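User: Structure please.
Assistant: Input sequence and predicted structure:
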Amino acid sequence: MDDFKRLTCHCNASIYRGLALQDAAVGQSHDVLLDRSVEIGEEIVPWLEQSIAPDRCLLTLIIVPCTQFPDVEVEYEAFALELSQAVVKHKQHTPRPDRTSASYLSVLARLHHLRFIQQKKIDYLIHAFSDIKRCLRRPTLDEYHQAIYRADMAAFYHTSFHHFGADADSNKDIEDAVENLRIAINLTKDHPRTLHPLFHYELGSMFLCRYRSGRQIKHLSEAVHYLRHSVEGITAKDIGIPAFDTCLNLLTVTLISRFNSTHESQDLDDAITYQEVVLSLLEGTLHEPGVGVIGCTSRASNVLDALTLYSTWLNMRFADSGRIGDLQTAMRWAEYVVDSTPEEDDAGRRRGISCFVNCLMNRFHAYGRIEDINRVVELVTQSDPRFAYEVGRVLMTAFERFRAKDYLDYAISCLQMAVDHAGAQQDALSNFEAVFKTHFGHHDIVAVQEIFDMFPSHIIAAFLQRPHVLALPRVFMDWVQISSRLNCFGRALTLRYETSQIREEAVIEEAMKNHLRALEVTPETSHLYPQYLLCLSTSYRVRFQVCNQLDDIDLAIRLQHRALVKAPQQHPNRIQYLTALGHSLLQLSLLSQNAEDFEAGLEYIEQAVDSPYGFHHDRLSAAVLWASIYHRSNDAQRSSDYRTNETSPTYPIDPTELLRRALKGYAKAVSLLARAASIGISSSSRLAQLYMVPRGLASDAAACAFTLAERGTDPIRAQEYIGNAIELLDQGRAILWSQAAQLRADLQLLEKQDPKLAKELQLVSDKLNNAVFSLGDSSSDIGPLTERLGEEWESLVKEVRKVEGFGDFLQPIPFYKLRRAADMGPIVIINTSDFRCDALIILPQGQSNLHIVPLKKLTKSRIEDDVSDLLKLLELLPFSDRRKFERILDGLWQTIGIPVLRALRQLGIDFSTPPHIRWCPTGRLAFLPIHAASPMRGGRGMLDYVVSSYIPTLSALLRIQKVASQPPLTARHSYPRVAAIYCSNLVSQPGMGPLPSTEKEIDILKKYAGSARVLDIVMGNAAQIDAVLSALQSVDWVHFACHGVQDVMSPMESALIFGDGRIPVSRLAGNSNLSGDFAMLLACETAMGSPGLSDEAIHVAAGLHFAGFKGIVATMWTIHDETGPEVAESVYEFLFSAEGEAEKTTSGSRRPASGKAAYALRRALLMLRDQKKRPALEWAPFIHYGM
């Protein structure tokens, strides 16, 4: 209650009816205790100007049963009063003998009190105290009525406390107010279900005000104690739904206030439970005990406000505990609020959007779903300062992901605006009471209206009508709002300092200043306090990295220790604290040469990785740091032989042991990476997870294993280390393809063992596949779908692993199986790492052990330079510098070609007939044409010695080999069924020029395959997306003669281009009905990957390979128009000839051997080079991909 909503009994109700303005009586209302007729919106200013006029007020009475009227129910009645007129009328209508009655005096006291609230004349308050004290001295007054009047006395003291400020006398006022309410409670021991809840509510409100004034946690706890008593042991029927609703509302927000201040998780749990009770009282909501809110059909503003708070608390609990169910429920109702709030309710929409944005940001930070960031961008208005904080957070996240400077600059601008705006709101809020203690027109109405946008209307209404009682805005919102913005702004400034080429000391000092301000306003017992400590410590650590000042790293470590001590053992953020502390200790050890710091730092990081609580991406970051620290520490020890002892760090661990620990860390990191980018989230989100780890993680792991293999004296153990390297390379590369491909293969095996379970899993798989590879998923929110399917998926996988023989279902493929991929011929993995570069030769089992070929002349930086030079050359086509390209090929020959071919000869490979080598390049080496490596000054090159194919991973080749071993679906006499797809002139597609040679390519295909085999010719305007996809599902071979494009920023949108649009990689890969043998992709850039994800092999050729085509001829860059038909002629001629091992049929035609496509392509390239005298830039882009 407040001064404009007071308790009274039926004895006095008739008096107030007589005093009300007859033409303005509101009448009975059972809606809500807080006057819902007062809406905060466009009508607020006129209403305020009337209701806060010096002599006018709107009074709502809670009419309760009493000793004289014991059987009546609680009622609510509102009156418009002209206070001066009411006082005069009250005196005139009351006979003089009755003016000493308790009823007369209590009403008169209340009128004087209301006049003081409105006009601030101290005489009115003095009269109010005098009248209520006289009332309480009436000898005939029973205990029940004494209690009601004691509550009035408490309200008067409460008013005095706020009016005169927080001095000693005012503190006495609040103590007297509390004492009067406690007396009132004792007087009504026999009537607890009616008055006690309302008295306890008043007591809770008073202690909330004391907390606001002194910030003592004990007062906040007292408030919680009394507010709990206001709702426990009673039902809404006892005091009416409005009063019960009011008590619950204030209790929930007070519990949240205490949670924010003390981090008692039980407070958050209880607040959510009570908020569910609030929602259960509202019409249109469906609540299930123990489950929560399970349905809602209402779009009423009070319901939507309650749902917003419910979602906010659930989202808060998810951030605190990591419970995914809380986040899912919060997301559901936050989105419902956003969708249900009408456009004209601007304040309600902003509250709902802010809640939904916070949910989306939490889900992104936990699971890396890029769709959540896109959705946030759709929701917020960048030009609105009230959304500046949300926009700034999104931009800062985008910078951390893509490192685009513009993102960070704009983020800092937005966050500066957010900090300024929060400060302005705080100033307005600090003066909020003063605004309403004087005439409304004397203050900035706009500033006050901004506060209205922050809170639900029923809270503001209560605040307006009794500004000194309801302390929620200051208690709950003040420091949380401001501290979060200050902290985020500090983080952004630290990022600017860390990533700028020119480090300005003023920037990092401003960052620290903001972090310190955030800590100053945050209670040390708050769950946010350790997070802010961590952010401040990061600023000191970053400055240490730049300035090398020991004081900075010492202070960072102390702050991180404090954060760790304050963090509960099961808190998700504890991993971040462990990792940061470990990192800082390791950095200190490099400077101090202290072995204890080194060991302690490593121990903290290992704890972070092995923590059973927290999010995968935090553990992944810790695992990457673990592996790299151990690995680089070994590298530093190895290099220390060439340094003086004074400058070289020393470590207490044997170098070989350092490598073993590094390899263990790499294994954990690769495993966590696979889980973070696992099936069940969209492809764009999985790619986002891959962007977050250092490039070449798997390659660094392999380099570590190779070094261990070389250092050991046990040849068997050395082979095991090499096997570890192969497993890590396979698990940590082409993750996007490998997981889905493994699923497809394993499902085929399961179908034979348990068809029913396989069918269920296939159904969920298809739905996930459509979601994961959905077209345009980078801008669509498929979160609820993938979450639900993901849970169903996990449950089914557990069931499958119970089936005999399927205990390792969808588990990583072990080395002894992976090496079978080399049964068809040698495989050469080229591993590139900052630590070392090597070729790993895998021969068919029984021929030789695994063999490492150190590539001593090859460095990762050289590869980076060559790729950069090549990309620049391709931009200048057809006017590129051919000599520069030849130098790139010469480098490949000197660094890879010569040592690998020499090693193959030493291992017994026969070169009398060129052997078929399957290359598996790692990192950005995948952008360079190894098959075209050749010496600068002429002479024989790679093309002369070997037949080359490229594979993404061993597991991919292994799966294709299994499929190829099965009998073809097509009858032998009609094999192959062929589709020819060409689109020569794309008028409808901007920037796509004509392709004059496409019809010639199709004529060549028909010439060798025969018209009977070419089932579909999709050409010209008929080359529409649906027609193309339909043709692909019924053929063994396909020939594409069309435009292709590689999308570097969104590689899953790399595509083949047709008359009505594009068929991107995501759609090709998602087509599970393809099972072709061979594809000729004479479209540009169909085998060019994305520089940022070179290990993922995301291009059109890979998409077709994954979808089921066993071998593909594709292009790495744009080709000349005349070159396509020449390659097609040579390849098809070979495949349909006896030389290509084509089998002659009874009809005289030849059945081609598509497995010889790599040989056919080599023949074509030799023809272009030797007979046509074409430069390498024209023939090198053609590659064979797959088996």
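The chain is about 60% helix and 10% strand.
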